[in-house]
Specification:
The chain is α+β, with helices and mostly antiparallel strands. It has 11 helices and 14 strands. It has a 5-stranded antiparallel beta sheet with strand order 4-5-10-6-7. Strands 11-12-13-14 form a 4-stranded antiparallel beta sheet, with helices on both faces. The longest helix has 30 residues.
Length: about 280
């Protein structure tokens, strides 16, 4: 690992100023990808800007029917938050499935979304829940944020500060994970919000994407059996040593059915508790 300047601002304004000042600087959130890349000499930034001292970026709040989650909220914070567990329990459940306890206590939602690893979990939730990505300069709709493998709509010098995530009527995430890395070979997040159904798939392609045929079927009838006549086109899906594209195409449908069933079950349990 090459030497670098270590910078630890206390505010997002200071962080943005440092990022503008240093031509070859990287933002450090949880460091789950950046630090291993640096150790393997795959990345050699001249400066690291650590956001861990920006307390405001760790907050989770409820505002006008949406959760506002700070970018530096750790996976553990999201999984254990009473607000998240009450209003979007599927998001809390997703966070609780990421990696192992060490990863969940270091990794952050902002780092995961900004990195846009093709097998990351959070992008599926952000896209399916029609969330808004908040940065130091603007807000970006989830549909416009994820571009391709490890590529997002973030511009040079722009920092993700948080997410505005609408509360769903019902939602669930189903994941078929690699037993070694616990990354998603395929993960499907299903959400019904304001009467509309959105389904986002991670792990299957170069970037998270919406399964429009699945959405159309569930829009007519929100039930696992509604997907019996739907299939996923394997062309364009990932094919590697872990799973070929045909296997992943089948997994998408299996995980979609499981997610719908879980969403219905969770909604039923919520209704029972409310009686």
């Amino acid at each position: 690992m090459k030497s670098f300047a270590y910078l630890k601002p206390a505010t997002t304004v200071a962080a943005a100023a440092l990022l503008a000042k240093h031509d070859d600087a990287k933002i450090l959130a949880g460091g789950m990808t950046l630090l291993p890349a640096m150790k393997q000499s795959l990345a050699a930034p001249a400066a690291i800007i650590d956001l861990s001292a920006v307390a405001a970026l760790r907050e989770i709040e409820l505002e006008e029917g949406a959760l506002v989650v700070g970018a530096m909220a750790r996976h553990y914070d999201v999984a254990s938050s009473a607000l998240v567990r009450t209003h979007i329990p599927a998001l809390a459940a997703l966070a609780g499935q990421i990696g192992d306890p060490q990863v969940r206590h270091r990794g952050t939602i902002g780092g995961s979304v900004a990195n846009n690893d093709p097998a990351a979990d959070y992008p599926a939730a952000i896209l399916a829940l029609d969330a808004t990505v908040i940065t130091t300069r603007r807000t970006v709709a989830a549909a416009a944020f994820f571009v391709d493998m490890f590529e997002t709509a973030l511009e040079p010098g722009e920092i993700v500060t948080g997410f505005r995530i609408p509360v769903a009527e019902m939602a669930a995430y189903a994941k078929f994970r690699s037993p070694a890395s616990r990354y998603a070979l395929v993960g499907v997040f299903v959400a019904r919000t304001a009467g509309k159904v959105r389904v986002a798939v991670t792990g299957a392609a170069s970037s998270v994407f919406r399964a429009l045929d699945v959405e159309a079927a569930l829009q007519e009838r929100f039930d696992p059996d509604a997907l019996n006549r739907v299939s996923m086109d394997p062309s364009g899906l990932n094919s590697d040593i872990h799973a070929d594209r045909d296997y992943r195409a089948n997994l998408v449908m299996v995980m979609a059915r499981r997610a719908v069933a879980a969403a219905l079950q969770n909604a039923g349990q919520g209704a029972t508790k409310g009686q």
